[in-house]
Design brief:
With about 130 residues, the chain is an all-alpha fold. Helices cover about 65% and strands about 0% of the residues. It has seven helices and no strands. Helix 2 crosses helix 3. The longest helix has 18 residues. The protein is rod-shaped. The N and C termini lie far apart (about 55 Å).
Length: about 130
């Protein structure tokens, strides 16, 4: 792998052009010290431009299983009301009010929102 993206793209273009010219992916792979499968993938994507060989983002375009605003608001309400009794009690109360996800998922949301840390900090400050 090259250190500069454009350098890597120029390398891929050279490999593809060689493989297409000679009609042999294995020969191109041996010459350019890469795998035949990788050359095959590049040739399949190659349309004559460098941009066709550019790396694509692997970032998801959507989060279909993301918590809804109502669920986050419910967790927030239950946590502020029952945090002194522990997260398991917060989960039980949220389930009674229609929360349908797992305990771990609820805890992750609480940590992500920062409520858990604030609750601990308040307790620590009260003790001091």
């Amino acid at each position: 792998m090259h250190s500069i993206i454009t350098e890597e793209l120029r390398f891929r273009k050279r490999v593809c052009e060689y493989a297409i010219k000679h009609g042999n992916n294995a020969e191109a792979a041996r010459r350019y010290h890469t795998s035949r499968q990788q050359v095959q993938r590049w040739v399949k994507r190659f349309d004559g431009t460098i941009d066709s060989l550019r790396l694509y983002s692997r970032k998801p375009h959507s989060h279909p299983n993301q918590h809804t605003e109502e669920e986050v608001a419910l967790i927030k309400r239950m946590h502020s009301k029952f945090k002194h009794e522990g997260l398991s009690q917060v989960y039980v109360e949220a389930k009674k009010r229609g929360y349908e996800r797992s305990y771990g998922s609820m805890c992750r949301q609480i940590r992500r929102q920062g409520h858990f840390l604030r609750g601990r900090m308040e307790i620590m400050n009260q003790k001091a």
